[in-house]
Description:
- It is a single chain.
- By secondary structure, the protein is mainly α.
- It has one domain (32-165).
- It is 75% helix and 0% strand.
- It has four helices and no strands.
- Helix 2 (20-63) runs antiparallel to helix 3 and helix 2 runs parallel beside helix 4.
- The longest helix is centred in the N-terminal third of the chain and has 44 residues, at 20-63.
Amino acid sequence: MKVTQQALAVARIQTGQGAGEDKARVMAWDRLNSMLSTLDSKTSVLLRFNAIVVAALAYVLVIGPTEPFMGTNATVRLVGQLIGHASLLASVVSCGFAFPVINVQWDFFGMRLDRPADGESPFDDAALARMGDLVAHRTRLYSWAWRLAVVGGIGFAILVGIGTLH
Protein backbone atom coordinates (compact mmCIF):
# COMPACT_ATOMS: atom_id res chain seq x y z
CA MET A 1 0.00 0.00 0.00
CA LYS A 2 1.41 3.36 -0.96
CA VAL A 3 1.74 6.05 1.68
CA THR A 4 -1.06 8.15 0.21
CA GLN A 5 -3.40 5.15 0.05
CA GLN A 6 -2.55 4.27 3.62
CA ALA A 7 -3.15 7.85 4.79
CA LEU A 8 -6.51 7.91 3.01
CA ALA A 9 -7.53 4.56 4.49
CA VAL A 10 -6.57 5.74 7.98
CA ALA A 11 -8.43 9.03 7.52
CA ARG A 12 -11.57 7.15 6.44
CA ILE A 13 -11.38 4.94 9.50
CA GLN A 14 -10.81 7.91 11.82
CA THR A 15 -13.79 9.78 10.38
CA GLY A 16 -16.09 6.88 11.19
CA GLN A 17 -16.21 5.08 7.84
CA GLY A 18 -14.51 1.97 9.18
CA ALA A 19 -15.37 -0.87 11.53
CA GLY A 20 -14.39 -0.92 15.20
CA GLU A 21 -11.63 -3.41 14.45
CA ASP A 22 -10.18 -1.01 11.87
CA LYS A 23 -10.18 1.81 14.44
CA ALA A 24 -8.36 -0.41 16.93
CA ARG A 25 -5.82 -1.31 14.24
CA VAL A 26 -5.20 2.40 13.52
CA MET A 27 -4.73 3.12 17.23
CA ALA A 28 -2.28 0.21 17.54
CA TRP A 29 -0.42 1.40 14.43
CA ASP A 30 -0.15 4.91 15.89
CA ARG A 31 1.14 3.50 19.18
CA LEU A 32 3.78 1.42 17.41
CA ASN A 33 4.84 4.44 15.33
CA SER A 34 5.10 6.45 18.54
CA MET A 35 7.32 3.77 20.05
CA LEU A 36 9.55 3.83 16.96
CA SER A 37 9.76 7.61 17.20
CA THR A 38 10.77 7.40 20.86
CA LEU A 39 13.43 4.79 20.08
CA ASP A 40 14.69 7.01 17.27
CA SER A 41 15.03 10.01 19.59
CA LYS A 42 16.73 8.03 22.35
CA THR A 43 19.13 6.42 19.89
CA SER A 44 20.07 9.81 18.48
CA VAL A 45 21.09 11.00 21.95
CA LEU A 46 22.91 7.73 22.65
CA LEU A 47 24.90 8.09 19.43
CA ARG A 48 25.91 11.63 20.42
CA PHE A 49 27.10 10.36 23.80
CA ASN A 50 29.06 7.57 22.10
CA ALA A 51 30.62 10.09 19.70
CA ILE A 52 31.93 12.14 22.61
CA VAL A 53 33.31 9.08 24.41
CA VAL A 54 34.89 7.67 21.24
CA ALA A 55 36.48 11.02 20.36
CA ALA A 56 37.87 11.50 23.86
CA LEU A 57 39.17 7.94 24.10
CA ALA A 58 40.66 8.08 20.62
CA TYR A 59 42.53 11.22 21.59
CA VAL A 60 43.74 9.81 24.90
CA LEU A 61 44.69 6.38 23.55
CA VAL A 62 45.89 7.13 20.04
CA ILE A 63 47.04 10.74 19.77
CA GLY A 64 48.44 11.32 23.24
CA PRO A 65 48.76 7.89 24.90
CA THR A 66 51.29 8.95 27.52
CA GLU A 67 49.63 12.16 28.73
CA PRO A 68 47.10 10.75 31.22
CA PHE A 69 49.66 8.38 32.69
CA MET A 70 52.78 10.54 32.96
CA GLY A 71 54.77 9.72 36.06
CA THR A 72 52.91 6.47 36.83
CA ASN A 73 54.33 2.99 37.14
CA ALA A 74 54.03 0.37 34.39
CA THR A 75 51.11 -1.45 36.07
CA VAL A 76 48.92 1.66 36.26
CA ARG A 77 49.83 2.50 32.67
CA LEU A 78 48.90 -1.04 31.51
CA VAL A 79 45.60 -1.04 33.44
CA GLY A 80 44.74 2.37 32.01
CA GLN A 81 45.50 1.24 28.48
CA LEU A 82 43.40 -1.93 28.90
CA ILE A 83 40.43 -0.07 30.37
CA GLY A 84 40.71 2.63 27.71
CA HIS A 85 40.80 0.19 24.81
CA ALA A 86 37.96 -1.91 26.24
CA SER A 87 35.86 1.25 26.70
CA LEU A 88 36.63 2.39 23.17
CA LEU A 89 35.63 -1.00 21.78
CA ALA A 90 32.40 -1.06 23.84
CA SER A 91 31.44 2.42 22.61
CA VAL A 92 32.13 1.57 18.96
CA VAL A 93 30.16 -1.69 19.19
CA SER A 94 27.36 0.29 20.88
CA CYS A 95 27.22 2.49 17.78
CA GLY A 96 26.98 -0.65 15.66
CA PHE A 97 23.89 -1.75 17.59
CA ALA A 98 22.40 1.77 17.53
CA PHE A 99 22.63 2.58 13.83
CA PRO A 100 19.96 0.04 12.73
CA VAL A 101 17.54 1.54 15.29
CA ILE A 102 17.45 4.91 13.56
CA ASN A 103 14.17 5.23 11.70
CA VAL A 104 14.56 5.60 7.95
CA GLN A 105 11.42 6.43 5.98
CA TRP A 106 12.04 4.19 2.97
CA ASP A 107 8.89 5.40 1.22
CA PHE A 108 10.40 8.88 1.18
CA PHE A 109 13.36 7.52 -0.78
CA GLY A 110 11.12 5.66 -3.23
CA MET A 111 11.66 2.13 -1.98
CA ARG A 112 10.16 -0.19 0.58
CA LEU A 113 12.10 -2.82 2.49
CA ASP A 114 9.08 -4.18 4.34
CA ARG A 115 6.99 -4.95 1.26
CA PRO A 116 6.20 -8.64 0.79
CA ALA A 117 7.42 -10.30 -2.40
CA ASP A 118 3.89 -10.45 -3.84
CA GLY A 119 3.57 -6.65 -4.17
CA GLU A 120 1.34 -4.23 -2.31
CA SER A 121 0.53 -4.95 1.30
CA PRO A 122 -2.84 -3.97 2.75
CA PHE A 123 -3.28 -2.16 6.03
CA ASP A 124 -4.24 -5.33 7.89
CA ASP A 125 -3.25 -7.49 10.85
CA ALA A 126 -0.22 -8.83 8.98
CA ALA A 127 1.10 -5.29 8.41
CA LEU A 128 0.46 -4.52 12.08
CA ALA A 129 2.34 -7.69 13.09
CA ARG A 130 5.31 -6.70 10.90
CA MET A 131 5.33 -3.28 12.56
CA GLY A 132 5.22 -4.92 16.00
CA ASP A 133 8.12 -7.18 15.06
CA LEU A 134 10.08 -4.14 13.88
CA VAL A 135 9.47 -2.36 17.20
CA ALA A 136 10.56 -5.45 19.17
CA HIS A 137 13.71 -5.88 17.06
CA ARG A 138 14.73 -2.22 17.36
CA THR A 139 14.04 -2.28 21.10
CA ARG A 140 16.43 -5.23 21.53
CA LEU A 141 19.09 -3.44 19.48
CA TYR A 142 18.67 -0.24 21.51
CA SER A 143 18.90 -2.21 24.75
CA TRP A 144 22.29 -3.64 23.75
CA ALA A 145 23.49 -0.28 22.45
CA TRP A 146 22.56 1.36 25.75
CA ARG A 147 24.29 -1.31 27.85
CA LEU A 148 27.49 -1.06 25.83
CA ALA A 149 27.40 2.75 25.97
CA VAL A 150 27.16 2.55 29.77
CA VAL A 151 30.16 0.21 29.85
CA GLY A 152 32.11 2.57 27.59
CA GLY A 153 31.16 5.60 29.66
CA ILE A 154 32.08 3.94 32.95
CA GLY A 155 35.38 2.82 31.50
CA PHE A 156 36.08 6.36 30.33
CA ALA A 157 35.23 7.71 33.81
CA ILE A 158 37.61 5.18 35.39
CA LEU A 159 40.31 6.15 32.90
CA VAL A 160 39.86 9.84 33.80
CA GLY A 161 40.01 8.90 37.47
CA ILE A 162 43.25 6.96 37.00
CA GLY A 163 44.74 9.84 35.03
CA THR A 164 43.68 12.37 37.66
CA LEU A 165 44.67 10.46 40.80
CA HIS A 166 48.04 9.19 39.58
